[in-house]
Specification:
The chain is mainly beta. It has no helices and eleven strands. The strands form two sheets. Strands 2, 4, 5, 6, 9, 10 and 11 form a seven-stranded mixed sheet that branches. A four-stranded antiparallel sheet has the order 1-3-8-7, with no helix packed on it.
């Protein structure tokens, strides 16, 4: 299983970032894919958004209306478009497959006030 995140970085509050997750191609037809984040080291990762095999999406209340999850199967890539970023969105973001079955290494997102 391959899950490689990219696109993290530092941004001012109100700005945007787009995260990408290059994943093993077969995952998209077999597993729910998602994005999790860990805001505090040592704390459990929390679900940010997920997308099921049939395209059903779920968003955490904290990101509804600001974040959008999407998949491009032709590129074996999942995305998380993050708009109107807030300081409290600062976290390590992880790509996940099959629920919490597999995680990538993570990418840091820092939102400055």
């Amino acid at each position: 299983v391959q899950l490689v995140e990219s696109g993290g970085g530092s941004v001012q509050a109100g700005g945007s970032l787009k995260l990408s997750c290059l994943a093993s191609w077969y995952l998209f037809d077999r597993c729910e894919m998602g994005w999790y984040r860990r805001q505090v080291p040592g704390k459990e990762r929390e679900l940010v958004s997920s997308i099921s095999v049939d395209g059903t999406t779920i968003y955490a209340d904290a990101v509804k209306g600001r974040f959008t999850i999407s998949v491009d199967k032709a590129k074996s890539t999942m995305y998380l478009q993050m708009n109107s970023l807030k300081v409290e969105d600062t976290a390590e973001y992880y790509c996940a497959a099959c629920g919490r079955g597999y995680f990538g290494e993570g990418t840091q997102v820092t939102v400055a006030s």
